[in-house]
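Q: DUF4124 domain-containing protein, please. Structure only.
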Amino acid sequence: MIEVLPMHWIRTFTIFAIVLPGAALHAAQGAGGSSRGAYYRCKDASGQTHYGDSMPQRCRGLDTEVLNENGIIIRVIEGEQTRLARQTREMAEAKARKEREASLQRDRNLLETYLGVEDIERLRDQRLELLTGQYRVTEQNIANLRERQKRLEGQIARFRPYSGNDKAPPLPDHLAEEMVNTVKSLDVYLQSLDRNRQEQDEVRAAFAADIKRFKELKGLPQK
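A: Structure for DUF4124 domain-containing protein:
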């Protein structure tokens, strides 16, 4: 005996049979990014549109759309200019994000490290005092080196070719070497002095910015 299916079952199976192939095709296109009937489309600098069932040569380096057999865009291949613009934008966004994070971290450090402006000023003065002490030591070393340089110049003046006496003996190697070393050391200490001055300026500027920001965070009046 053949069993007859209810009418509502028959309608359900019919709809299922119609919908399933289309859904399967749509899923296959979404998963693979293209289908057997996919083709490519791009527009060049002159505005002319190019098509092809594979990437047209004139589309190389241009934004290219990949369309399915129904003419629906399923993905876009970035061109060189678009890729560079995206990378530039992403780098700028990453830099801005990093700067925001650094600013927030700085604010947290200020609030967690200091109880008041006096604490910041105290640390600033300690840093400057240390640098000032180093500066004075360097100045003394420079004064000693200049005194040695003057003494050596007096000794060297008795020897050829610096002496006006044609019968003067030639300059001894040890004096020449000592003068060269003195001049080099003097140059090193002078550069150290410049760096120390620059570092003091940087410390003052950094702590001034910290004090200003701390007052902003605490709602204190700026002076």
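A: Brief note, in case it's useful. Residues 114-218 form one domain.
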